[in-house]
Amino acid sequence: MTEELKYLSGFGSEFSSEDPRCPNSLPAKQNNPQQCPYGLYAEQLSGTAFTAPRLENRRTWFYRIRPSVGHYPFKTYQKGNIRHDWNTKHPDPNQMRWDPFDLPTSPTDFVEGINTICGAGDPKNKHGLAIYNYCCNSNMKNMAFYNADGDFLIVPQLGELKLKTEYGRLTIKPNEICVIQQGMRFSVDIIEPSRGYILEVFGQHFTLPDLGPIGANGLANPRDFLTPTAYYEDLDEDYEIIAKYQGNLFSCIQDHSPFDVVAWYGNYVPFKYDLNNFMVINSVSFDHCDPSIFTVLTCQSEKKGTAIADFVIFPPRWSVQENTFRPPYYHRNCMSEFMGLIYGEYEAKKRSFSSWRRHFT
Ligand SMILES: [Fe+2]
């Protein structure tokens, strides 16, 4: 029987969680006592500069069995196909589309199965984004991955993913998404051969869009974002830690599981979201709203109101405008668009859009 996982509900909240096997494992009153309960090690993970304004400041305190710093040196990791070499390629202004990517025929785990599709900017300057697909058919056994460059927004298209993180476990299935932010260690197990999309943003984190005149509710509601609850494993076994750092992959060995966090608290967390919970807002008179009305999450640049990337969905909805030319929207847009199908048929072009498309409009 599949264990039902527990989650904490909310977006941007201050959460706290203890593995129920170790009650009172969160230290009371202070972050870093000389002696933590159960002899745990206190460790802070920062998601913003220490001095970031309070509203943007993100950090979490872990209470773990062994310190993360205990590992052998990192070396170049040879596998995988994560590349940030778009600045060395000649650009192509044409619209492009792809058929669904083939599932691997030889054993391939989630990290090995990540392929770079496109990108812009530079992780070294902490500005820009990358878009990948993943196709995998095996588990990350005794292996963990973390991204020092930015945040991963993972969108499964085929197959449920079972993620282990330092914060606990979470599962995501097609039509759910999850965000694993910079520095958070995680591993991915699968149930069947799996495929999906990843959006990576450098330098900033995803937030919920402002709602303006829509009001206090609507689009993706904060309560529907779910964060895992603490779950530790105490394993003295070799683990391979793979790091994405300045666009390159590195790996090191450590002699214990990195998923040994017994308790944690903070506001820098991984989260998942079921796209079925998105409250769609649409025109009820004439004309289409701009597609930004379908924004689930946004990653804002330092230019006010302008995103590094918006994650937008076209979910099932009534589209009942009068005296309005049918969808799709015809526009020319200063922003690049990358589209991927999760399920169903895309309303604009049904043919040859079975799973993948990128277009520039
Ligand atoms: Fe468009």
From TrEMBL:
EC number: 1.13.11.5
EC class name: oxidoreductase
BP-aspect Gene Ontology terms: L-phenylalanine catabolic process; L-tyrosine catabolic process
Catalytic residues as annotated in Swiss-Prot or TrEMBL: H288 (proton acceptor)
Cofactor: Fe cation
UniProt-annotated stretches for the region Disordered: 9-30
Protein name, UniProt field: Homogentisate 1,2-dioxygenase
Domain of life of the source: Eukaryota
One example GO MF annotation: homogentisate 1,2-dioxygenase activity
Homology family: Belongs to the homogentisate dioxygenase family.
Pathway entry: Amino-acid degradation; L-phenylalanine degradation; acetoacetate and fumarate from L-phenylalanine: step 4/6
Domain Homogentisate 1,2-dioxygenase C-terminal, first and last residues per copy: 277-354
Key words of the record: Dioxygenase, Iron, Metal-binding, Oxidoreductase, Phenylalanine catabolism, Tyrosine catabolism
A Gene Ontology cellular-component term: cytoplasm
UniProt entry tagged with the keyword Oxidoreductase: yes
InterPro entries for this protein: HgmA_C (IPR046451), HgmA_N (IPR046452), Homogentis_dOase (IPR005708), RmlC-like_jellyroll (IPR014710), RmlC_Cupin_sf (IPR011051)
Residues bound to homogentisate: Y346
